[in-house]
TrEMBL record, chain A:
GO cellular component term, pick one: plasma membrane
Protein keywords: Cell membrane, Membrane, Transmembrane, Transmembrane helix, Transport
InterPro entries for the chain: MetI-like (IPR000515), MetI-like_sf (IPR035906)
GO biological process, one term: transmembrane transport
Pfam families hit by this protein: BPD_transp_1 (PF00528)
Organism: Xaviernesmea rhizosphaerae
Bilayer topology annotation: Multi-pass membrane protein
Similarity-based family: Belongs to the binding-protein-dependent transport system permease family. CysTW subfamily.
Subcellular locations according to the entry: Cell membrane
Occurrences of domain ABC transmembrane type-1 (ranges): 71-277
Transmembrane segments: 13-39, 75-95, 102-127, 169-189, 210-233, 258-277
Protein name: Spermidine/putrescine ABC transporter permease
PANTHER family the UniProt entry points to: INNER MEMBRANE ABC TRANSPORTER PERMEASE PROTEIN YDCU-RELATED, INNER MEMBRANE ABC TRANSPORTER PERMEASE PROTEIN YDCU-RELATED-RELATED
Automatic annotation (TrEMBL), chain B:
One Pfam assignment: BPD_transp_1
Subcellular location: Cell membrane
TM segment ranges: 12-35, 72-92, 104-128, 134-157, 178-204, 233-255
Name this polypeptide is given: ABC transporter permease
CDD domains documented for this protein: TM_PBP2
Domain ABC transmembrane type-1 as annotated: residue spans: 66-255
Native species: Xaviernesmea rhizosphaerae
Family, per entry: Belongs to the binding-protein-dependent transport system permease family.
UniProtKB keywords: Cell membrane, Membrane, Transmembrane, Transmembrane helix, Transport
Length: 287, 270, 387
């Protein structure tokens, strides 16, 4: 993850004291129960009391076209929402970094506002606004546009909801990342005749790769396991993994399969985390 | 000085996007808070009224719950800062085996779907006699803040050039003085962003508060949930949201002074 | 933490009593007192108007008869909220601690999975309830769930657009196909009104014989041939549903879709439908109707008591009280619901008065069939994947 800022190369044992409380908290409250749940998906109790290895729930998942379709839909939604959330927030962050004045303040206020709207409220608001016979349709009708097709209950419904929800965090992290670029370096580039696109590509983007990676890793987690948005805004089928595993647990009453789905979700999210760490390590080496 | 300063077309374009994407959905909630009836295809509510406001404001538990939420959020945010900032500093500045692994573990801890863990978590809280207590709710909400409060400050500390700290140390400042006077101020904009998000997310957190706190600890969003979930009448939820937006707007204006402007220059990245 | 919006059938059995005002609910004491001997913590999955009913009828009656006992009525915040409490009760059971939960209203003992087998819930058939023998057996889904009020599912429609409301199931199917995009129902696991529609369709394709479906007779071999007949019917009407085959995310969502005018007809719980009409949530032209050939299946809402509840004995006493003739008569008169005990236990007056208006009972579909039926629906109807 890093080439180390510490130049002495000795081990700082004090660090373990600093990280002890948060690490213990997640080990006790999250990792231990999660490990038990994952263990339970692979080792089942035999009638004689012993444990037997059994991967049949995984075999079922990966041979079941229905489960796989749900996994594919989850991946699609996650990636589309990730690409769009960066595509939407990067220009806004750039604007806010390089502009002063009332318009920038207003844009910041508006773009950060979703932070204060809980998920359930925004679901209702989006249904009332974007939904069939919603406010947007009323407004469009009023100006004579009558071919409105609602994104609610289509795959785009959850994508819109997820972007809404993830916008403030994404924006805050991107803005902070842009802060490291000095105005002087951009002025210098402009003086030698570089165009806007070139400045963006050769100066700005390389500087905020770290921020984009953090944003992607954090959002991947939030998007992939999301329950509320796909429930409220998405289509009945295919389901996203979040609603799918809850339904398996609550309605189908199959805890083993639900835990298997949870473990698969966990492994995929961990891969995203690992990808983040790897790319970060590679970047450090290039420097 | 800016690249979009002279012919500013981006600003208005972004503004138009935000109007459609943020303002209008929020306005929908706002209008509903003052509507008694609203049927398609009417552009504005078919019947206006304050009925729902009067009914909510007159309930004493609304204010109790609001105070409880503020108290909880402040406690959790302060506790999280106290515990996570040193940890973040260790991750950014100290060298120890397993550093990347520990750092990753905070992400992984949030990757396992919670529904499969709820019973185990509840057993722990019951065994420790934390159910129905303020401390119990603080702890479960604290767990949710770890990822953000460690990852963002770590990145912020790491972005600060080590030379400035070493220069201060050379003139005789103690490590604590260096941290307090040199490191912390430079990392502050990012830390402020993390604190703001932690505070707001904790304020609106419901699942943990309900699992551990009910029915003794009652927060504002829990009250909201009981009025929104499965309710035919959406106005109560709308009114409560709008009531909460007033303090939120004040917070965001104040935040602009901290996170806004030139202070960005000392942010995340690298 | 993951939220989920699982909505039980029992969530939605709400009263029809005219437009229950929210203000009245402010009388409900929402958990300010500390956990104490003699204070029963009762969590509600139902709407505020059911809490009103408890506040005004059950609480005063029970507290007067049992001095030193106080009922603390707590709104549960929807299906996911009550499931979280069931999780906590399960955890308390494992840790041998007080869950601070004495009773859950309008939920089922089937969550969390395995809780019945573990012994988490009180068995009402063996706990000596004096009124237990009066309970109408068809309303009982499980010995661990005590039913106390019933409700039926009806067609809810906008009379402006639906001039001739279908009176039989085949007529309904014809109407759906003739009016594409104007009807839909809730996903069965999220909104039981949708489940009741599917169950009524199942009764239709098996010759309108509700007796085929008994709580204890589910086996894959017995059920699958019947399910195989059901899927083609539901698949056939799918393209004519809202938005080319979309289902709503719950009972409330169905009514709200109807209110927006996007659809003209849906299925809904009668109490919710009447409440929506009296509160002005839906246009004034909204009406309800029941099928005349064989009514939609309905459902009963009940209470569960954890065996580890601190005030278990008082909670069992309370359970006995809510199925007493006194309270059950109030369920009919004040709530507009169905009694869970046999009508012959109620006063003669009441029996005569309601004999003409209400059916003696409402058809119920056994809950033991539902997990397989709903999972099959997702795989064979909602999905386009060939199995």
């Amino acid at each position: 993850m890093d080439a180390g800022n510490n130049r002495t190369g000795r081990i700082d044992f004090l660090a373990y004291g600093f990280i002890a409380i948060p690490v213990m908290a997640i080990v006790v409250f999250l990792f231990y129960p999660a490990a038990l749940a994952m263990f339970g998906t692979l080792f089942h109790k035999r009638p004689d009391g012993g444990l037997a290895f059994d991967a049949s729930s995984y075999i079922f998942f990966f041979t079941d076209p229905y489960s796989l379709a749900n996994l594919m839909r989850t991946l699609w939604t996650t990636f589309v929402a990730l690409v769009l959330i960066v595509a939407v927030n990067l220009p806004i962050a750039l604007y806010m970094r390089f502009t002063r004045g009332w318009l920038a303040s207003l844009i910041q206020g508006l773009a950060l506002f979703p932070m204060f709207v809980p998920g359930i409220i925004i679901c209702y608001a989006l249904i009332r606004y974007l939904g069939p016979n919603g406010w947007l349709q009323s407004l469009l009708n009023a100006v004579g546009f009558t071919h409105y097709a609602s994104p609610i209950t289509t795959p785009w419904g959850p994508v819109i909801g997820l972007i809404w929800d993830g916008m403030p965090m994404t924006l805050l992290i991107l803005i902070s990342g842009l802060g490291t670029i000095s105005d002087a370096s951009i002025e210098a580039a402009r003086d030698v005749g570089a165009g806007r696109l070139r400045i963006l590509r050769s100066i700005i983007l390389p500087q905020i790769t770290h921020s984009i990676l953090i944003v992607s890793a954090l959002n991947f987690l939030g998007f992939f396991g999301q329950v509320l948005m796909p429930f409220m805004l998405g289509p009945t089928n295919p389901e996203m993994m979040g609603p799918f595993m809850l339904r398996t647990f609550v309605s189908v009453r199959d805890p083993l399969q639900a835990a298997t789905q949870a473990t698969i979700t966990f492994l995929i999210c961990s891969l995203a985390g690992l990808a983040y760490v790897r790319s970060l390590a590679n970047r450090k080496e290039e420097r | 000085m800016g690249i979009v300063q002279r012919r500013d077309v981006f600003g208005p374009l972004i503004l138009i996007f935000l109007v459609f994407f943020i303002v209008l959905p929020v306005a929908t909630v706002f209008l509903w808070a003052f509507a008694e009836q609203w049927f398609y295809p009417s552009v504005l509510p078919t019947k206006w009224g304050f009925r729902f406001w009067a009914q909510l404001v007159s309930r004493p538990e609304v204010w109790q719950a609001f105070l409880m939420s503020i108290k909880l959020s402040l406690t959790v945010t302060a506790l999280s800062a106290l515990i996570c900032l040193p940890a973040a500093y260790a991750f950014a500045r100290m060298d120890f085996p397993g550093r990347s692994g520990f750092m990753m573990s905070f992400l992984m801890a949030n990757a396992f779907p919670r529904f499969a863990l709820i019973v185990s978590i509840a057993v722990l809280f019951l065994t420790l006699d934390l159910v129905g207590t303020f401390q119990g709710v603080v702890i479960i909400q604290f767990l949710n803040t770890l990822l953000l409060m460690i990852w963002l400050p770590t990145a912020a500390f790491r972005a600060i050039p080590r030379e400035t700290e070493e220069a201060a140390r050379d003139v005789g400042a103690s490590p604590l003085q260096v941290f307090w006077h040199i490191t912390l101020p430079q990392a502050f904009p990012t830390i402020a962003a993390a604190l703001l998000m932690t505070f707001v997310w904790t304020f609106y957190e419901t699942e943990g508060a309900w699992l551990v706190g009910a029915p003794r600890i009652r927060t504002m969003p829990l009250l909201m949930m009981s009025m929104i979930n499965n309710q035919l009448v959406v106005q109560y939820g709308a009114v409560l949201s709008v009531m909460l937006w007033v303090p939120s707007l004040v917070a965001i204006v104040l935040a602009r002074r901290v996170i806004g402007g030139d202070a960005f220059a000392k942010g995340l990245g690298g | 933490m993951a939220t989920h919006l699982r909505m039980d059938r029992r969530d939605f059995l709400r009263l029809s009593a005219a437009g229950a005002a929210f203000v009245a609910a402010s009388g409900a004491q929402i958990g300010v007192s500390s956990a104490a001997e003699g204070t029963l913590d009762i969590f509600f999955n139902s709407d505020t108007n059911i809490i009103d009913f408890w506040t005004n009828v059950i609480k005063p009656g029970f507290e007067a008869a049992n001095s030193g006992v106080t009922l603390n009525l707590v709104p549960g915040g929807g299906g996911s909220g009550v499931n979280a409490l069931a999780d906590r009760a399960m955890a308390a059971f494992q840790a041998k601690k007080d869950p601070q939960i004495d009773m859950l209203e309008a939920t089922t003992p089937f969550y969390p999975a395995g809780s019945i087998e573990a012994g988490l819930w009180v068995n009402f058939e063996t706990s000596g309830l004096s009124n237990q023998p009066k309970v109408n057996p068809v309303t009982v889904q499980s010995p661990f769930l005590l039913p106390y009020r019933g409700s039926q599912v009806v067609l809810m429609y906008n009379a402006d657009q639906v001039k001739d409301v279908p009176a039989t199931f085949p007529a309904l199917v014809e109407w759906i196909k003739a009016n594409p995009g104007k009807f839909t129902y809730a996903r069965p696991d999220l909104g039981d009104s949708g489940a009741c529609f599917i169950e009524r369709a199942l009764q239709e394709v098996t010759g309108q014989k509700p007796d085929l479906f008994q709580p204890e007779n589910y086996t894959d071999a017995y059920a699958n041939p019947m399910f195989e007949k059901l899927w083609p019917l539901l698949k056939e009407i799918q393209p004519a549903l809202f938005n080319g085959g979309e289902y709503t995310s719950g009972n409330t969502a169905s009514i709200q879709l109807l209110a927006s005018g996007a659809i003209s007809m849906t299925v809904a719980w009668s109490d919710m439908a009447l409440q929506a009409m009296s509160q002005g949530v839906v246009p004034e032209t909204t009406a309800v109707a029941q099928l005349q050939d064989l009514a939609f299946t309905g459902g009963f809402s009940g209470v569960v008591v954890p065996t580890v509840a601190r005030n278990k004995d008082a909670a069992i006493k309370l359970a006995d009280y809510i199925i007493s003739a006194d309270v059950q008569e109030k369920v009919v008169t004040d709530l507009g619901g169905f009694p869970s005990i046999g009508w012959d236990n109620l006063s003669k007056e009441l029996q005569e008065k309601f004999a003409k208006v209400a059916p003696k009972s409402i058809p119920v579909f056994p809950g033991t069939w539902e997990p397989k039926l709903f999972e099959g629906w997702y795989r064979n109807v909602a999905s386009n994947i060939k199995q």
